[in-house]
Structure formats: structure tokens, C-alpha cells
Amino acid sequence: MTNKKTILLVDDDDDLREALAEQFSFEDDFKVLTADAAKPGMELARSEPVDIIIFDVGLPDMDGREACRHLRKDGVNTPILLLTAQSGDADHVLGLRSGADDFLAKPISFVVLLERVQSQLRRHQQSEDAVLQVGPYRFKPSMKLLVDGEDKKTRLTEKETNILKYLYRAGGQPVAREELLDQVWGYHREANTHTLETHVYRLRQKIEPDPQHARLLITESGGYRLQM
Questions:
Q1: Nearest of 86, 110, 91 to residue 7 by alpha carbon
Q2: Collapsing DSSP states into helix, strand and coil, what is residue 53?
Q3: What is the C-alpha separation between 62 and 148, in angstroms, rounded?
Q4: Contact present, 79 and 5 (Cβ < 8 Å)
Q5: Which of 55, 69, 133, 151 could form a disulfide bond with 64, CB atoms 3.0-4.6 angstroms apart?
Q6: CA pair distance 50, 142, nearest whole angstrom
Q7: Distance of alpha carbon 47 from alpha carbon 71, whole angstroms
Q8: What is the per-residue pLDDT across 158-206, written as a single tens digit (0 to 9) for each?
Q9: In angstroms, how far apart are the furthest CA atoms of the chain?
């Protein structure tokens, strides 16, 4: 089963916020957090594992672009999409300069908004800033780190990180050993299937409650699969 992506929706228009939250909730891939002002939205963005943020520009306590700027300064790399009643080029440029990833003018088509959200999620998932959900862990490739539900941290080696990242991006599909060797080691002379198996063994010691009966990193015929 695919892990749901968490959307943080920050808008002071109660009707619009509730309508969008309801529409996103109908999609199997999403769960929604909401806030009606910038400051509570920023607190949620800092404290919750959020996958994408939708900020209205015209919030009562702070311009959404300024909120975006603050979050970027705080190191929040989550994709941010801005909504605005203005559609001019100058407003678009100001939004992007604040650190936003995308900009959408009201009135909003939910179909268009959904496509923009999915596009940003796909792009972010391929970046090193992504925080990926792997079973009970938050996986942070750029930090070579796994964090469980109790905030216990597990450090990974570079090769373990790259194996896990490549399997994650396969979307739960099996990956052949030769493909993993190519992607992680580049078919270096010193790398062979035994090298890969050794790294997978060590990775299982870190992520599996019972490494002898793997439930996350599954052996398939000719390769491996990450249970999504």
C-alpha cells in the first residue's frame, strides 16, 4: 500500500480551505492538515512531517510569501505552492523569490491544483532534500539517516543510503541485483553480487525488527524489493 502524502493547507477563507481539504481527502494518496493563518501554519510545517505546503498569499497575520521566506530560512525544504488573487508577472516573480516552488492564481481549478501538487511531489522525491517514508521510518537521504516514530536515529553508510533510495524510487517494484550494482557502484571492478548482498545484510540489521524474516527489504528472484 502506498504511503499517504501529507498536505498542509493554509488559507483564511474557511469555505475554500474546507472545500479543498475535502477534495484532497477524497484522493487515496493524501491526508490533509489545515490552518487559517500563517503563524499556526508555520508551526505545523516545523513540527509535523509534511510533504507539501499550500499557502495563501493574503493571510490575516502575515503575507504568505513572507511566511515562505521564514520557513526557508529555518531550513524547511518542503515544496511550497502559493495561492493568490493576483495573477500578474510581478506577483509571480515575488512568490518565486520568496522560495516558493510554484504559484497558482485564484479562482482555483482543483484538477489543476492536484496536478501541480503531484508534479512538485514527484520532483521533490527525486531531490536530495526529500524526506521519504520507509515503513515506520522517515528516511532522509541527504543526511544518511533513518528516524523512527520515537525519534530514534539510525545512521546509514553512503552505500546503504543509495541502495535504500534506489529501491524506494522503484515504487515497490523488484530491482535486479545487476541494476543495483550499476546504479550504486557503477559496476566497479571490486563490486559484485556478494558485495551487494553484504550491504543488504547490514542494512537489514538496521531497519528490520527481525532481520532473518525481512518485512521491509524483501528478496525477490534475482533482486530485491522495498515493501511500500
A1: 110
A2: strand
A3: 34
A4: no
A5: 55
A6: 17
A7: 12
A8: 999 999 989 988 888 999 998 998 888 875 556 688 889 999 999 999 9
A9: 61
